[in-house]
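Notebook, p. 212. Picked up where the previous page left off. The plan for this session was modest: take the two constructs that came back from the sequencing core last week, fold each one, and keep the raw output in the notebook itself so nobody has to go hunting through shared drives later. Recording the first one now, exactly as returned: residue sequence, then the structure token string.
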Amino acid sequence: MPIKIIIADDHRLFREGLVNLLSDSKDIEILAQAENGADVIVKAKELNPDVIIMDIGMPVLNGVEATGKLLKDFPSIKVIALSMHSDKQYIKGMLEAGASGYLFKNCAYDELIDAIHTVHAGKKYLSDKITEIMIQDYLGKEESIPETDSELTERESEILKLIAEGASTSEISELLFVSVKTIGTHKQHLLEKLNLKTSTDLVKYAIKKGIISLD
């Protein structure tokens, strides 16, 4: 079954370009386009997509408002924010509204495809740049992460280190000669074992435990 997608963006040229790109993928089906936050809510209710690629700066309802309203009624829909906004308030706003992923509009095609598959599988996806912004915000506020004494396997430690260093799921799979799906499974096990929720939490954990250095 293809992953059913709605693309929401107020710039028609960008929207149609994204449709053309994603249409090349055999396991993705574009259900509709939406030009504002209110429009995407109406179309999502009618068409029941698996994933919505959501811009933030849209008229009528912005991406944060639309995501929050939509996911209250349809929590199974996954939202990926695709935006030029790098301010941490926009990132936090989308994630707090329930978005499963956040990427910049200048991301690579392969990264967007990876993000779509990751969130469709029920996991979170933040681009490397987004993760870096959130880490800097965390370091500035000296937030804490849960303590744990769980012992990691050699492979789990290896994958954690690569995640913390900013490697994407596809890059890790190539380095370790295993499938993207296997890396995703390891990542989920890491989150469960360490009692963490997001990729950002994994990076925080790695920094705190000295697995990576910021030097």
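Okay, moving on. Second construct, recorded in the same format:
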Amino acid sequence: MNLRPITSEKAVKLIDLENTLIFEVERRATKTDVKKEIEKVFSVKVEKVRTSIKSNKKFAFVKLIKSNPAIDVATKLGMI
């Protein structure tokens, strides 16, 4: 699966306020697929995954559990 992190102002705000990361994912990817991939790649626990389709692109909003700060994952990705 192809995960592309989104680094907009809104994405950075969600990292700080809601412990949530935003990724652009493949259209056919399910929420379960996204959750498993994030947990495997970044060694974190995912609380919830929400998806949204805009302009023929699918975005996954991945909320991490409180013991895994999203800011740490964002730093690894070079977003912040």
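Notes on construct two before I forget. The radius of gyration is 11 Å.
Flagging for discussion at group meeting.
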